[in-house]
Amino acid sequence: MASIRELADAIIRQEGAFDPRSVNMQIVTRYGMWNVGHLSWSGQRGAVPVTVGGRQWAAWPTYEESYEGLLRQIRLDASRGMTLAQFITKYAPPSENPTGVYIQNVSTWTGIDPNAKLADVLRDDAPPLEGGPDVYFDVGAEAGISSDAIVLASIVGLTVLAVATA
Questions:
Q1: What is the pairing mode between strands 55-59 and 48-52?
Q2: Is the pLDDT of residue 138 over 50?
Q3: What angle, rounded to 10 degrees, do the helices at 63-79 and 4-15 form?
Q4: pLDDT number for residue 143
Q5: pLDDT for 166 beyond 60
Q6: pTM, two decimal places
Q7: Distance, C-alpha 134 to centroid of its chain
Q8: Domain boundaries, the chain
Q9: CA–CA distance from 79 to each of 74, 117, 119, 130, 133 (Å)?
């Protein structure tokens, strides 16, 4: 049985997250934030949207929070009953990646069979971060706050705890 950290580390390795040309390192250089898993922006907890290469990516203030974001994505898709191959195909679609090679590499590095359901083969050895920011962008939008204002608050290190509207 592989650990969730082993899978996350294999994804980071496959994505080349520390290569100077990677999305992650471009985010680090331009914004001073992190996205070690190269996750597209979809309103992830604690993340803000940033643009690299004409595409929006999720970015977290620290490496640890970025890693936690990747772990949350793995947990979510494991809970949906995805196999390793299904997860990687969703995560790294053939239109953007050599998905077959990606699947084979991650399978080899982790020992996870591509057709195995993640929930059946992953040991969750990574407790959630304590005290990390919980910024939910949909709450701000429902309260009439622009996402730009919330993103700015996140970038400067503020946590939006409550919102009052007139």
A1: antiparallel
A2: no
A3: 110
A4: 38
A5: no
A6: 0.75
A7: 15
A8: 2-134
A9: 9, 9, 6, 22, 23
